[in-house]
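Hi L.,

You mentioned the student needs an example of a multi-chain input paired with its predicted structure. This one should do, with 487 residues in total across all chains.
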Amino acid sequence: MTNTTPAIIVDSTPEAKAAFYAELQTYVGLEIGEPTPAPDEVNAPMIRHLVEAVGDRNPIYTDPELAARSIHGGIVAPPTMLQAWVMHGIDGPQRGGDGPYEKMNELLFSRGFTSVVGTNSEQTYKRYLRPGDRLTMRTVIDSISDEKTTGLGTGHFVSTRQDYYDADNELVGSMLFRIFRFQPKAKAPAAKPKPPRPRPATTHDNQWWFDELNEGRLCAQACADCGRVRFPTGPLCPSCHSRSYDKVEMPMSGTIHSYVVAHYPQVPSFDYPLPIVLVDIDPSTSHAGKTGNDKVRMIMNTADCPESALAVGARVRIEIRATDPDMKLPFAIIESTGATS
Amino acid sequence: MTTNHLTPTLPDTRTYASVSVGDEIAPFELPLTRTLIVSTAIATRDYQVVHHDPSIAAERGSKDIIMNILTSNAFAGRYVTDWAGPNSFISSVKIRLGAPNYPGDTMTVTGSVTSKDDATRTVTVAVKGSNSMGDHMNATVEVVLP
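Structure written out for the whole complex:
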């Protein structure tokens, strides 16, 4: 036994499928293992246990006098109890082995047909069994269907036939048992569309910035008094405390100052791993700044670039994209990897 | 053979002549108790855990234990012999399986005569067992009548 799951063989061409089906058919007609003797002879106590559980009051199963007066001539077992006489009991069936049934299953498993469901049981009776009958069962692979697709998945119907013989080797009954060996239908990919991004918490002090983005402009603030360029937006200049400001349109380019890649916790609106970059926006040409403290950094996600392209110092182009019908945000597209020092 | 009022009598059996194609058999309601599902599984020597252990059944993806197939067979047979009587002979029971029988549900069994074969005095009965999820079994039972 190994712990690795063997790769599923895919028969992609009609010829390969036909060859697989032909190999399956070589198992039809083969007997599965040795004949199985019933552990007990047919007996009145087991009959009584079953008819009590089932609530079957037919006197031919439990009443010796009435059964003797019936066409059956004495106590008989319910015909549908046929299979119970050879059941394995609490120890269960012997597993494993390398008989035809196991080999057929291995062949089916190799194509991914690993799930199983019982679909049909067809019993025929030559005569009713009576206490003292000692049964032996022989099992044959009766048929294997070609590939079928049902509501459960795609696979093959496998029928086995169990023939039951009495002590005189006379056939007393048979059971055709059909199972469906299948590969379960692939679970449908998450049908739920991604929820929209969380909305920004907008206020009187930053709503204008999102409004500008919606118009296609990436802005910062410039103090109307001392000229300092600043971001994020706020009511007061950190340098001179002035409440007056101008909107400054910033260049759509910059350099990665730092970055993180978020793995957890995952918010359904995003794809993970999720790069988040801090971009030094290139200086404004109209407002070069006067205070020497005019660096503008913005946090954003990247777009159209692999995680491996992330590097401190990498040059980025900034694009404003619609993330939802009513929201636009800046995204960094990495143009070249920067110094990796 | 002498009989008197103390001698139990064999219930009547329907005669082949008295049965017609299209005859409906009275419906039978079977409450699917946990005791029924477990006791019938054990009485048929079927110790698979999915027929008696709810916690393991749940681990394996079943919402509860389920009736075993041997018991579905037994009820298909009982339904027809309850109707036909003790001097009948069931020659085949063929069932197609559907929705499982879980505890707490009820299986309603209905049936009707679908064909007769004069040469063998065999009557074919279509039996359906339905629960709240749909058809548990569709059975075809052949019974020979006197």
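You could point out the following to them. The radius of gyration of chain B is 18 Å. The first strand of chain B starts at residue 24 and ends at 31.

Best wishes,
N.
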